[in-house]
Each structure stands twice: as structure tokens, then as C-alpha cells.
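Q: Here's a chain of 327 amino acids. Please give me its 3D structure as C-alpha cells.
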Amino acid sequence: METRRLARNGPPLTRFGLGMAALGRPAYITLGHAGDFPDGRDVRSMEVHAERMLDHAFAAGIRYFDGARSYGRAEQFLRGWIDSRRIEREQIVVGSKWGYRYTGDWQIDGRVQEVKDHGVAMLKAQFADSDAILGSYLRLYQIHSAAPETRVLDDRQVLDELMRLRERGLFLGVTATGPRQLDTIRKAIEIRAGGLPLFSTVQATFNLLERTAGPGLREAHEAGFTVLVKEALANGRLTSKGTEGRADPLRGVADRLAAPVDAVALAFVLKQPWADVVLSGATTAAQLDSNLRALAVDLSPDDLQALEPLRTPAQEYWAERARLPWN
């Protein structure tokens, strides 16, 4: 699989990475998530399932794995897999995030599943946990879902603490969320520490429906940042599970190319020259195989024009995302 360099001087990242958001906890907002775990969603069953997915991803050539403290036991599952398979540090790149606390308590009953906290105390506590679990395998540490309203990128204490982590040898990143992703990305690009950019990566939602982060992601790439794209399938809305009528143009292009709808949606993201790593949120081997078919999909100018009607106003997109049920 083609690779891109992390921050130009770091380890190589494969064009596809595996996101662990739906693999480390029993509930997530991806459409149809509840049906992807036929062996159950108790802790042990999900650990076995996650290890099988990690095996499958590794065999397919994926070498970047993206977790977070709020992803239930994702970091523990990942480290258990690393140790049991005797994966060496140089073979993979692991990223994680701080800023959300997992509050789901392994239940799927409508309770709040995660709570955001971008304070310095949260940063210190969550890094200590991630460091204890992942150790030297942790290479990229990211702010989880930064947004203007939390003012995390204006918090001097947080930035100073992140600077200390960078001095330890970690690469730092910012993940953006919400209708003002563009503002977050541009602010992250500007932050300096010791005369150098504090952050090495930016990660944002970009897909056929929500494209507002595109200009900022292009600017970040041109400035030397590594760009990671999350939610490229809009939490399942751009897969065969999506039922929205406006997905018809996507199905039309997919039928014409004899490709899965998810592969076409991912091919659109891969076609962006600034998209260094695209995260797959697959929870089954079949889903991952289908996602990876995007590498062989070549979208023509006519295909891209046919997909243009899928573009959605940002406020509408994020309002719809907020209504997706944890399942």
C-alpha cells in the first residue's frame, strides 16, 4: 500500500488507516453498528473481534491505527494484539487522542457515552493512561475534536503541556469537528512553539456530503502537515446501509463502475491530493475489504460531476450527525 510520511520526517503512514472508534466499545453512531458483532458485545467477545479485525487490516497492508481514550477499551485491545502478535514498534504507527472521557460503562441503554473535557488536568490524566497502555508504540497524540467553543487552542496551559510532550519525541495533532472545522484547522496551522509549528497533523471530517474543511486541509498539507481524514463514509450514510434518497447519485456512479458505494465514496476522498491518510471505520472484514476496493476506483471528471449534488450545507450535515443513535 502506498505510504505518506508523518510530518515529512517521521515514520511512513499507509494511505488507509484503521480507526478504532467502533471496535473498542459496544455502542457507536455508525449505521447498523449493532449488527456487526454476531458473537456478542461483552468485553471478551469484542476483544477477540477487534484482534481479528487488526489481523485482517495488517494482512491487507494497513500500518496506521487510530485510537482514543474515549473509545472504550480500544487502546487495551490494540496493545494486547501488538503483544500477542509480537508486532515490533517499527512495523506500525499508533495514534491516540485526549479530550473525551468514556462514560458508557459498557452499556447500550441511552446513557451519555462520552463527555468532552479539554482542560489541562484531563490532558495530563489521559496521557498518563495512554502512555501506560501503549508505551513506546504511541507516536501521534491528538486533541480529540477541537472546536472554537472549547477554546482549547487558546489555552496556554494545554499548549505548554503539549509542548512538553513534543519534547519527549511525540508527534502532535489536532482533530476537528463541527461546522467550523475550517476555523479550527487554520488556527492549528498557525500555532508555534519554539519557532516551529506545535502540531504535525490535522484530522477532520471530509466526505461527499461535508466538504467545508477541504480548503483548510489543502492549506495544512501545503504547509507540511500530514492530513488524516475521518468519517469519510459519514458514519455509514455513504455505504449500502445508508437510506437517504440523496445518495442516489452515489449509487448511480457505483453501478456504472461496478464498485461498492463505499469504495466510490472513499475514492472521492483519496482523489484529493492533500488526503494523506483516510481512516476506515470498518467493523467487519467484509466492510474493510469493500473499503479497500477504493484503491482501484478511478473517478472520471464526469463521475465527479455526477456526485456533486451530494454536497450538503455544513449546519444541516452536523445536525443530522447529532441525531444518529448510538446502537
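Q: Can you summarize the key feature?
A: DSSP finds eleven helices and 14 strands in the chain.
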